[in-house]
Structures are given as structure tokens and as C-alpha cells.
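Q: Got a minute? One more chain.
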Amino acid sequence: MMFDHFLPGTRYEGCIAGYDEAEIVLIGAGYDGTASYRPGARFAPAAIRSETLLAQENYSPYFRKDLTEKAIHDAGDLELPIGNKEAALQRIHRAAAASFDDGKTPCFIGGEHLITLPVVQAAVTYYPELQLIQLDAHLDLMDELFGDRLSHGTVMRRITEVVKGPPRLWQVGIRSGSREEFEFAEAHTRLFPFLTREFIQQVEHLKGIPVYLSIDVDVFDPSLVPGTGTPEAGGIFFPEYIEFLRAIQSLHIIGCDMVELAPRIDPTGVSTVVAAKILRELLMIL
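A: Always. Here it is, folded:
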């Protein structure tokens, strides 16, 4: 199925499959219209793609696989009206729904964390028993942020209203949130703060169940990824991330995203290089 509202651009290196033959579809969604501190995540998809052309090998020594061995199609970046949140979210939803309808596994590059909401809304239509793993420094469980109920700080609260029933949101690596958010999480989500170790010990409970994975790059220590909108002291490092991926690679992951890289905040460009590696290893386990 052809997507609408896509911009021409550079392909993510190694993602060479045509759409029809692809199992995985990479989609850029550079929206950051509700960024509450340091904006700039809208530039992440293009920056990551440019970086892969110059500084990234396709081969993962961690998983002993090459991107070119996998059937991955890079559909490009959605053209999103930054000043029109509803229209932007609708376009992301349509792209996600088209991917699911064609039997693909979509992988979105944000953009801020709000982009996860329309993708999950599309996913539950096809996978009613969906569970969501959120790898993040922040709970994102505010009911509203600056009077707005649709924001990167409220996105997981809205998602708990989409994936209803017993707690189906697994929040991993969390180290920031208000008292009210933590109380809400203890009652309505499955919370694994600070590190991934305790979650990994419980991952067997997700076997055979459709899972969506959302990775906010601020889960990493800010010394590793300083180019993000809301950096938070502490966080995981790359070896722990690889162990996390190894633990979930046997799960039925039906879609995913990586969000909140703001490349222009980090003038060294290291954050973008690291984010490209984060994405490469994620693609290896899909």
C-alpha cells in the first residue's frame, strides 16, 4: 500500500528492501509540537539517516546480523504540519494503520513521545490484547501538561485509556515523575524503575502476546545521549540496553518506535551517532 504525505529524503543505510517484500517498515515522524523544555526532536529522523550514510556499519557484532540480511523498507519521513497537532497525529495514525493492514512491522523514528499514541491506537485495532513496553526516564503519566491532555508528558496516561483492563503498560528504567504520577503507576501500570534488571526477570510473562516497544532515548545516561529534550541524571548505558534487547528478542513485537532525540542540542553530533546505533540494534531483534 502506498503511503501519503511523505517527503523525499535519504534512506537509512542498510534498509534496502522494497515495500512489498519487506517485513519491517521504517517511518520517520518528526513531530515535536508539544515539547515542554528543549525542542528539536523534529530534526531527528533526517539527522539519523544522514549519520548512517557516513558513520555506521550495517553489521551488528552484538547479534551477528547485518541490516541488509533483513527485509526492511525505509518509507521515508512523514510530512507533518507542526502547527496542527490533530492533523499530524492523524497522518501518523494512517501510516501505522496502513503498515498493520499490509502485515508489516512498523518502526517509527520520532519526534517527541506523543507520536506513540496514534501508532498504539492503530495497533490495538489489529492486536486487541496488545501490551506496551516503555523504556524511558519519565513516567509520562500526567493527566495534562500546561492544560493540554495530548502532550509528550501525558502520552502514557492516554495510552492506559487505549490498552484497558489489567495493567498492560510496562514502564522500565523510570527515574522521574511527580508523586501523583508514581501513585498512578503503582495502581495502573507495571513499574520497573531505574534499571532493566527486574523487568528482564519478568519478561517471560509477555511470551506469545503482541507487544509494542517504545524507546525514549532519555532512558540512557545523559553523558551518553545529551541531545534530548528532557535529560535526566542517571540512566542506563549501552551494554545494559543490549542485554534488554536480548531478553525481549523472543517476544512477538508487532511495532516499535524510538523518540526524543533532539540532534541540534548536541553540537558534537555524538547523540545522533549513538541514536543510530540504538536503532540499528533494535531493528536486529524485530
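A: The two ends are 21 Å apart (CA to CA).
Q: Perfect, thanks.
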